[in-house]
Amino acid sequence: MTTTKSKTVYTPVFTDGAEYRIPTFKLLKQDGSLYKGGKAPDIDKEKALRIYHAMVTTRVLDERMLGAQRQGRLSFYMQCTGEEAAIIGSTAALDDADMIMAQYREQGALAYRGFTIDEFMNQLFGNEKDYGKGRQMPVHYGSSKLNYMTISSPLATQIPQATGYAYGQKMAGDGHCTIVYFGEGAASEGDFHAGLNMAAVHRVPAIFFCRNNGYAISTPADEQFAADGIAPRGFGYKMDTIRVDGNDILAVYQATEAARKLAVEENRPVLIEAMSYRLAAHSSSDDPSGYRSKDEEAVWREKDPILRMQNWLTKKKWWSEGEEKELQERLRREVLETMKRAQKLPPPPLETLVTDVYDEVPPLLSAQFEKLKAHIRKYPDEYPKSAIHVQGGA
Amino acid sequence: MTTTKSKTVYTPVFTDGAEYRIPTFKLLKQDGSLYKGGKAPDIDKEKALRIYHAMVTTRVLDERMLGAQRQGRLSFYMQCTGEEAAIIGSTAALDDADMIMAQYREQGALAYRGFTIDEFMNQLFGNEKDYGKGRQMPVHYGSSKLNYMTISSPLATQIPQATGYAYGQKMAGDGHCTIVYFGEGAASEGDFHAGLNMAAVHRVPAIFFCRNNGYAISTPADEQFAADGIAPRGFGYKMDTIRVDGNDILAVYQATEAARKLAVEENRPVLIEAMSYRLAAHSSSDDPSGYRSKDEEAVWREKDPILRMQNWLTKKKWWSEGEEKELQERLRREVLETMKRAQKLPPPPLETLVTDVYDEVPPLLSAQFEKLKAHIRKYPDEYPKSAIHVQGGA
Amino acid sequence: MAKMNMLQAINDALDLAMAANDKVLCFGEDVGVFGGVFRATSNLQQKYGKDRCFNTPLVEQGIIGFANGLAAQGSFPVAEIQFADYIFPAFDQIVNESAKFRYRSGNLFNVGNLTIRTPYGGGIAGGLYHSQSPEAYFAHTPGLKIVVPRNPHQAKGLLLASINDPNPTLFFEPKRLYRASVGEVPEGEYQLPLGEAEVLKEGTDVTVLGWGAQMEVIDKAVEMAEKEGFSCEVIDLRTILPWDVETVAESVLKTGRLVITHEAPLTGGFAGEIAATIQERCFLYLESPIARVTGMDTPFPLVLEKEHFPNHLKVYEAIRESVEF
Amino acid sequence: MAKMNMLQAINDALDLAMAANDKVLCFGEDVGVFGGVFRATSNLQQKYGKDRCFNTPLVEQGIIGFANGLAAQGSFPVAEIQFADYIFPAFDQIVNESAKFRYRSGNLFNVGNLTIRTPYGGGIAGGLYHSQSPEAYFAHTPGLKIVVPRNPHQAKGLLLASINDPNPTLFFEPKRLYRASVGEVPEGEYQLPLGEAEVLKEGTDVTVLGWGAQMEVIDKAVEMAEKEGFSCEVIDLRTILPWDVETVAESVLKTGRLVITHEAPLTGGFAGEIAATIQERCFLYLESPIARVTGMDTPFPLVLEKEHFPNHLKVYEAIRESVEF
Ligand SMILES: Cc1ncc(C[n+]2csc(CCOP(=O)(O)OP(=O)(O)O)c2C)c(N)n1
Ligand SMILES: Cc1ncc(C[n+]2csc(CCOP(=O)(O)OP(=O)(O)O)c2C)c(N)n1
Ligand SMILES: [Mg+2]
Ligand SMILES: [Mg+2]
């Protein structure tokens, strides 16, 4: 039972916590200099460039693939433009063996971990090399090698799953943790409440990383919750909580690094709220002009996290204009070439329709599959992708 | 989008809100005197006695019916012993036309509103006069006349429903609000998060009344959440929140009265956490000796809310030992007599099996019912309760 | 009469319902100023105000919980679930609450005013989570009504009937047809009956039964079959629960054969319920086994969606096999 | 061999599983020190520690979400849902997540180690919310296995098989039999096969099929029927998904008649799926319509529970009608 050690009052005073505001942690100004009193985390040049490279890769990929979608080469795409620092800064502060459970807008984390452009493309085009076997929509990446759980569309389901995954890590005693990303919109789901409360009770090494980018599709954050962001919810779970400028690569990195220490060394789960903005449309199916102004977007374009990091690198003399130009060009070329390659690869074979439902195909499904094959043999022209897989066979 | 007006910090400081404790509001000491600095709410003698009467009725009913269950006269029962002040004090602070959406342990609210012993018994025995037509387990009361929503066993489902109900009241502009009761265990459900967040966003006249009684069946509150109770969650929703001594009838009353003002006059939903203790077993199926000590229970028995109110009444000279004795005896007699009456009434007629599934019985169900009747006619001895309803019929 | 696509017909129905009764409220994720991701609620906020048409937080269990409460209070909530694939977090509120509200209270309270709208079905390259047809998950739940329209005219009339029906109603909208299906729609208010299947075409050899977007597939298949000389009777079930056994049984008593098709997987799909009932009702009249043409027993795929789909060729083959049995 | 009731057999299975593999974890509401409201997890916390057997907060969607994550990580979660009536808040985690985890990831990840235990069924005066049999709600979901044992011996062997099976498994425990069903149970570890129905009694006139607590009802009905001279073949389906079509079809090809019984309501119940499949497989051999004896299409009642219940008399009548058709 709760033994409340709270003090007593004799008049009924209501509080909504407004007087207790959670501050925002920042280190890096837009011009690349540090705030007074701020101390940059311990990032060496190699790591800094790995981070920066992942950020630029993500931006270039996003731009090109949205273009490809507009040209009809791709059915769907989602950009993470504006949120690269939040995503990559946090992933970079982890061990590469820590588990990542993402929402869908975290391709930057994969880029940082070393997912190749080829690997991105294979998923986007659902070809025979797609790890997901062409079963999910574009951007539903996954990599067991890189400890990146395959994306699932239903929102927030990954949050209590992360709690369970982290509990398993704690039991295994392997010194690893799980980071779980989610939007401020997804945080309204019941699964959010479940996942955070259970994490606090069961003391799991998990980092709950909320990307507060101001919108859930068309719904602005102030129609999503009345409170000052997501961070105040940490109180309700007694969870260590921090709010950070999501466009500030150094602050995100340092906060996540400290969070990881709490998680792994003390089994204290942490809630991080990264304040940022979804600069692009929600997805290639969306048009934000119906629900927000260009002016509002412009304010945030000034806070571009990639430029901010570039300014810092330049100040440190770790990066030059020439290198920037070369990187950009190389990446653009690579994306285009890889896209062409990926588009040409055949789709996954017909049998992937029925495998992986269970560990083995059960008899009834097997019978359905045989029937399908016979049907395709009868109408090969109607199923051009698959007809070659059924020729002659039983 | 969120415009965070929070201040900036340059070092990563984590907070779990521990330094910001929500105090407990109290007025009445166990001996019936007021705490220094406390001022009793404006309750006249008539109202005070109405409250007290409801509390004693509830206690007597609970004791007798648990006894009846032990004797095998009743299949199931749930007591609210120890929590009478929390429940009745809050209901009493409302308008009788305000909606009550309860969990299952709030029979006191019904007693206060004027549900008769007969009405209680009819439900408990599921006889032909039970408003619920004998369909639900004992204690699943409901009364449209008294604005008390019929109890539903699945926990926490009533919480977002209360938000919706209150939204409807706001739209109707009738000046009424909804109070929704739930346990600290039920507050772990996803529906809790949904209901409170939506209430804050849509500004509904609802009072979320958490009975923190220390246990959810065998699960102690500290295995339910890590935080200091439920109240800190109010911060996460930016909801006016107050914690109150749940065994203190005056504090509960005053807090709820103030909450109702916020709800009805300003459309500000309120979260009230009443600190109390489930003195009895969870239900007649439970035995707490498996998970908690008699000593722990004894501490709380000393804080009996009914005795506390009685002491206050006595001090005010509104109540005497003689009146107490008479009331107790009268109630015991009434409960026993009513029980006998209710037990003798026949069960609801056979057709109640199929009515109220829809507004009208659909054809397929009608056919199933005809088949059932024919079957019962064939085996009348096997269905003694219903055979009389099918005699001679089609 | 006006030419409309299905989205416009639905929008028109909502508009009329809101105009006629100011207790009708429309809400859900992004349904407010944006008008919903498919734009079914376009302009309703602008017309009826933010109090009557609004965005909710992103929480399906909350949307339906809220809607249940509103309905119990006497309002007429029309709640949108953005995709039928995302209705499952609200499963408890629908199956344990909406469906049982009236029964458990002995009719003291009910949520009969509730309507839940949600786009369902495949054919839009949506993969696992933007393609499901979950009607059968709900069809095991006495207390609910389940409605699926096949075209704009039906959509408007059935939606208005669902909103006005005194029982909680799930209204599944075939999103593949949202813009693709265009047709004449009467102006003003009209209602089409719930609980009644519609015989769209009479025939003598075989009954072909479906609902929603599958009716288009059936039309194509039947066209092929009739060319082969098979006379098909075509029925749109329209209401899945409680379903119209009589109309289907009467047809099968005549034709002696039944082919049922739906997009959802075979096992546990609603075609199973229909087949089980009809084999009992029409046992002595059946000339061939009742056939089901459905999605396969897998999650909904993406790249191989076409192979998975119960298309007109598969329905045609089933008709042929049924008649030639 | 030892004499045990079903709870003891389940407790024994959990104990053995935890002893054999320290990655097996048991959790849920009140399963810790208290051992669960039915005491199925008695002494497991005492024996294996609070880390491996523990109470969770009261949130079913969280319990299964947590279990999904644990299973993906490589642990063997055995999650308890206190009553099957309360599994619906976890519907999304089970149907959209557990069932589709492997497929959607191309087998990069899976939650095959997951087992969900939950008591189901009526007969304990539980009313609407302590009586439901929701197996059919899940049986429309490729990717899940669903298992229901009929007695202590089966419970132990099938539960151990479920825990070890590399697919997410729902294990429905007939709570009416928890203490009522007592029988000989082999000591130590053994597994009974999933996906295989069991022919309990051979016969020639009619096949009678059920699962879980209905097997007792069937036994009584068959006893009555055999007295009348009807020779019954009795089958326990045991695994609802994926179900054993072959064994059932083979039996019906022989007997020509099939009676199926379950507690859940008729419409959308799993008997419908079986009937639909068997009428197709055995069309030319069926001598009477396949009969379903089930709960009525209403929420589960309380006082009139007996009337609602598909008891042995109703099953007997169906057998008789089937044979005398
Ligand atoms: C359970 C569920 N409901 C609804 C959706 C549809 N949907 C996809 S993304 C989205 C908005 C998510 O917003 P947020 O969590 O803030 O993430 P962001 O897109 O801003 O990164 C919605 C409503 C979904 N995928 N899953
Ligand atoms: C959704 C759901 N899950 C589980 C249960 C079983 N159950 C009934 S009461 C209870 C404990 C509730 O505890 P709390 O909310 O603290 O209320 P209290 O009994 O202490 O008044 C549980 C687990 C239920 N009724 N509904
Ligand atoms: Mg967002
Ligand atoms: Mg409690």
Annotate the secondary structure layout:
The complex is a heterotetramer, with two copies of chain A (394 residues) and two copies of chain C (325 residues).
Chain A (H helix, E strand, L loop, with lengths): L7 E2 L14 E2 L19 H26 L13 H9 L6 E3 L5 H7 L3 H9 L32 H15 L5 E6 L6 H13 L3 E7 L2 E2 L2 E2 L12 H5 L2 E6 L3 H18 L3 E6 L18 H8 L3 H11 L5 H24 L18 H16 L5 H7 L4
Helix pairs in contact in A: 1-2, 1-3, 1-10, 1-11, 2-3, 2-8, 4-11, 5-6
Chain C lengths: L1 E4 H15 L3 E5 L15 H5 L4 E3 L4 H14 L2 E5 L10 H7 L3 H4 L10 E6 L14 H4 L6 E3 L4 H13 L4 E6 L7 E4 L12 E4 L4 E5 L3 H14 L4 E5 L2 E3 L3 H11 L2 E8 L4 H12 L9 E5 L9 H4 L3 H13 L1
Parallel strand pairs in C: 2-3, 2-4, 4-5, 5-7, 6-7, 10-11, 10-13, 13-14
Antiparallel strand pairs in C: 1-8, 6-12, 9-11
Helix pairs in contact in C: 1-7, 3-4, 8-12, 9-10
Assign the CATH architecture of the largest domain in chain A.
Answer: 3-Layer(aba) Sandwich
Overall form of chain C: globular
* Percentage of residues assigned to helices of chain C: 25-40%
CATH class of the largest domain in chain C: Alpha Beta
Distance between the termini of chain A: 66 Å
CATH class of the largest domain in chain A: Alpha Beta
CATH homology superfamily name of the largest domain in chain A: Thiamin diphosphate (ThDP)-binding fold, Pyr/PP domains
Element order, helices and strands of chain A? Answer: EEHHEHHHEHEEEHEHEHHHHH
Q: How many structural domains of chain A?
A: 2
Write up what this structure looks like.
The complex is a heterotetramer, with two copies of chain A (394 residues) and two copies of chain C (325 residues). With 394 residues, chain A is of the alpha/beta class. Chain A has two domains: 24-344, 3-Layer(aba) Sandwich (Rossmann fold), CATH 3.40.50; 350-390, no CATH class. Chain A has helices spanning 45-70, 84-92, 107-113, 117-125, 158-172, 190-202, 233-237, 249-266, 294-301, 305-315, 321-344, 363-378, 384-390, and strands spanning 8-9, 24-25, 99-101, 178-183, 206-212, 215-216, 219-220, 240-245, 270-275. In chain A, helix 1 (45-70) crosses helix 11. Chain A is globular. The relative contact order of chain A is 0.15. Chain C has two domains: 2-185, Thiamin diphosphate (ThDP)-binding fold, Pyr/PP domains (Rossmann fold), CATH 3.40.50; 198-323, 3-Layer(aba) Sandwich (Rossmann fold). Chain C has twelve helices and 14 strands. Chain C has helices at residues 6-20, 44-48, 60-73, 91-97, 101-104, 135-138, 152-164, 214-227, 245-255, 270-281, 305-308, 312-324; strands at 2-5, 24-28, 53-55, 76-80, 115-120, 145-147, 169-174, 182-185, 198-201, 206-210, 232-236, 239-241, 258-265, 291-295. Chains in contact: A-B, A-C, A-D, B-C, B-D, C-D. One magnesium ion is lined by residues 183-185, 213, 215-216, 278 of chain A.
